[in-house]
Amino acid sequence: MINNEFSNISAEGSYTLNSPRESGLRISTDRRKNTFRSIILSPVKRRRKSARRECDKANSYVDIHEKSLFLIFTLTVAFSIIDAIFTLIIIKNGGEELNPFMKFLMDRDVLTFFWVKFSITSFGMLFLVVHKFFVVFKFITGYHLLYGIFFMYLTLIFYEIYLLGLIFKVY
Question: Domain map of the chain by residue range?
């Protein structure tokens, strides 16, 4: 009995397959293209730590993240809260807010300033965690941006500690 897969053998010795299913190929749509579904289901159905194929290395989503990324996210959000508190103390003692949007919020309501600053930082960092493998400008990834923002906040905190030292005459 001849296997159906080889039923179309030509005189030259080559053969054609009758259907994609007979060859073992998938006939459904590519699941890798359905990224929104992956994002929604990732808290429930965790599957991917990294891209499985070489062609998927850049611009792919995963649903299992490293512990170090959680630490960077948490510290950056904490630094944002500390920055808001230090900024309010510095402004109360004669400093000035240089960001016009934050100055507008601060003049309106301090609590609004705090929550908007917290929300922008938190959702921005969360967006970058989800897009950590995405490439911008051919070489900058979400990882680079996450660590860059973390070190920017770290530097800002040290600068504000220096300013607070000047205000309270510690130096």
Answer: 4-52, 67-167
